[in-house]
What we know:
Elements (H helix, E strand, L loop, with lengths): L4 H18 L3 E7 L4 H16 L5 E7 L4 H6 L7 E6 L2 E5 L6 H14 L8 H22 L3 H14 L4 H13 L3 H9 L3 H4 L5 H10 L5 H12 L3 H13 L3 H14 L7 H13 L4 H15 L1
Parallel strand pairs: 1-2
Antiparallel strand pairs: 1-3, 3-4
Amino acid sequence: MGLNLEEQKAVDAFRKDVVEPSMTKLVILDFWAEWCGPCKALTPVLEKVAAEYADKNVVLVKVNVDEQQFIASQFQVQSIPTVYAMFRGQPVADLTPMRSESQLKDALDQILKQLPMDEAAGGETGQQQADIDQFIAMGEQVLADGDGERAAGIFVQVVEMAPDNKAAQAGLIRALLASGREEEAQAAFASLPQEMQDDPAFEQAKSALKLAADRPDDSELADLRAKADGGDPQARLDYAGAAFAAGQREEAADTLLSMIEADPAWNEGAAKAKLLQIFEAVGLEDPWVSATRRRLSLILFG
């Protein structure tokens, strides 16, 4: 799955200790460390409440962040103690602010009222879906961090588990493109059924595929840059597309933003259209896209 041995061990242990129990129980997941004073103060409170709620299918699982750094990073733990309520493999509530026994009990009572604890937990199907969701989220995070190769490995594993999962298939295509494997990405997309290709879930992947088709080699990119330096708008537009395809998204954005600032109406707004296409390919929720969109807004409306 693109994980090293220690990370794989951590994921396997997390699945066994947290995901599997959470299919039928509410798991209180406590991230802590030996050196953390507030953690040690909270531990007896968590243990007491968990014991009292054991007959309501509530269990406590503690994760030492020093020993399980990979798992803590997947949950984006920034400070400890951090406490979540987990059900069917997913966080359903942040219990971190609840530090007293009464606060925890009140929170648990509210959560338990909303969860189908008395229903079948979904058996193997429920657990598999939880695993799939967990690894898709992991793959997206790894891809956002810039490691396309590792993200592709994660998505390949998910696709093997659930070939009809649109999020996994779309993630695999984008990860392959991010790792420079354009032909494999094109082949992966072409192999999908037509109804899946037409699904809105693949719009981001299709935008990325279109832009990747402009990927040049180093000499071609240098030639395009030289032509763009001459000031011709079409040459600058071509260079921006090639720069993005080559992984230089800041260079591409800077070029397009300067074009928009100089003449937003050129060629029926072609520079803005290209920039919006790049936004779609990267993903509208990506922090880089958000920051670049603010730059665009300042130019257009500032």
